[in-house]
Protein: VPS28 isoform 12
Amino acid sequence: MFHGIPATPGIGAPGNKPELYEEVKLYKNAREREK
Structure:
């Protein structure tokens, strides 16, 4: 999905998968804009 986007670990993200947390955040933001 959002591969290649730099993730910033340590900001409320799970320690094992910070990039996954960023992907979910970006996905939710995109869904909100669609409404």
